[in-house]
Specification:
alpha/beta, ten-stranded mixed sheet, 11 helices, 14 strands, 20% strand, elongated
Length: 348
């Protein structure tokens, strides 16, 4: 008999399983609290449960965990970067960031990525597999156990394309926001996407209040296709229509992520094109100085060009921020640490 991933079960599913194994329904509530509030990693830690019940659970279920391979702490801002090993040896990464408004954790949704974005280390090597809801949750729970800190915000913006792992992502969000669990507010969750149009429409119908962050990075189809191969499948006009639909259905403004690459997409004409593209949107533009990676030849835009770009957008009455660089000294950007560890594994 294949064991069941208990941490991926909703309270309702867990209650149903208890009835199927001839246990009282209240056992589901106890199990869910131990797993999702107290964040235990074994049945033996569940101190208020009878021994015979725990033994039965061990025969039927397994508790998903991750192993911390590496923790790096930034000397610049205290950001913590984690490389975690999954049960099958795949490596993912997560980041813990401290802000004045609370602590944020950025998690991965896939081991690897197949989107092929040119400026991102996550996609080098392609997609290995999707993460289970429990594996997404466990990144948060493991960091909570290690830091002993509360979590205010969760960003699904690490390795992988979240909407390419749609069903597991939605289940993860519902588990994370469940009032019987960690109960993170939906408005405190951000999901990033490179623009998988059908999935954006589908997400709009989930009745969630999360923030959708679209990786835009260019304001013309030609330039976007150069940076992001997925753009060959979905034109900018289609992506923008999907974003407008998402806003109309949810009332949640879109965040447009725009990685500035020196000499590629950071000119004043680029800023004009971007302003024209999004001027009718209720949105926020988040400008991101690109993180250089060894395998690519892209360089971070000059500070003066970043500020000019920002000012040009603001003159067009567009809300814009420049992302505060976190963990630059510890390979804080998506995929960098994972890429280094997997390369070392192959070499050694």
């Amino acid at each position: 008999m294949n064991k069941i991933d208990i941490k991926s079960l909703s309270p309702e599913e867990l209650t149903e399983k208890m009835l199927q194994i001839n246990e009282k329904p209240f056992r589901a509530k106890q199990l869910f609290e131990w797993l999702h509030v107290k964040n235990v990693t074994s049945f033996q830690e569940m101190r208020n449960l009878p021994k015979d019940f725990m033994e039965k659970c061990e025969e039927i279920f397994y508790i998903q965990t991750v192993t911390c391979l590496k923790e790096r702490v930034s000397k610049l801002d205290g950001t913590r970067k984690y490389a975690f090993s999954l049960f099958d040896g795949n490596i993912i990464e997560s980041v813990w960031m401290k802000y004045h408004h609370g602590n944020s954790i950025c998690i991965s949704s896939q081991a690897g990525c197949r989107m092929g974005c040119r400026f991102c280390a996550s996609t080098i090597g392609g997609l290995k597999r999707n993460l289970l809801p429990s594996e997404m949750l466990e990144q948060i729970y493991a960091i909570k156990r290690m830091t002993k800190e509360k979590v205010s915000n969760v960003v699904v913006m690490g390795t992988g394309e979240p909407l390419d792992n749609y069903d597991n992502l939605i289940k993860f969000i519902r588990l994370l926001t469940n009032e019987k669990g960690l109960h993170i507010g939906q408005r405190s969750i951000t999901v990033s996407t490179c623009g998988i149009v059908p999935a954006i429409y589908k997400l709009a119908g989930e009745h969630l209040q999360i923030t959708l962050a679209l990786s835009l990075h260019a304001a013309t189809d030609e330039k976007r296709q150069e940076l992001m191969p997925v753009a060959r499948q979905y034109k900018l006009s289609e992506v923008m229509e999907a974003c407008q639909y998402y806003f109309l259905k949810t009332g949640r403004r879109i965040t447009f992520e725009y990685s500035l690459v020196r000499g590629v997409n950071d000119s004043m004409p680029d800023a004009d094109n971007l302003a024209s593209l999004i001027k009718e949107c209720n949105c926020l533009v988040n400008l991101i100085p690109v993180n250089p990676i060894e395998e690519r030849n892209y360089k971070e835009s000059l500070r003066e060009d970043i500020l000019k770009f920002k000012n040009k957008l603001e003159k067009n009455r567009i809300n814009v921020t420049i992302r505060r660089e976190m963990g630059r000294d510890i390979e804080g950007a998506c995929g960098q640490l994972r890429r280094r560890l997997t390369s070392e594994e192959k070499e050694g």
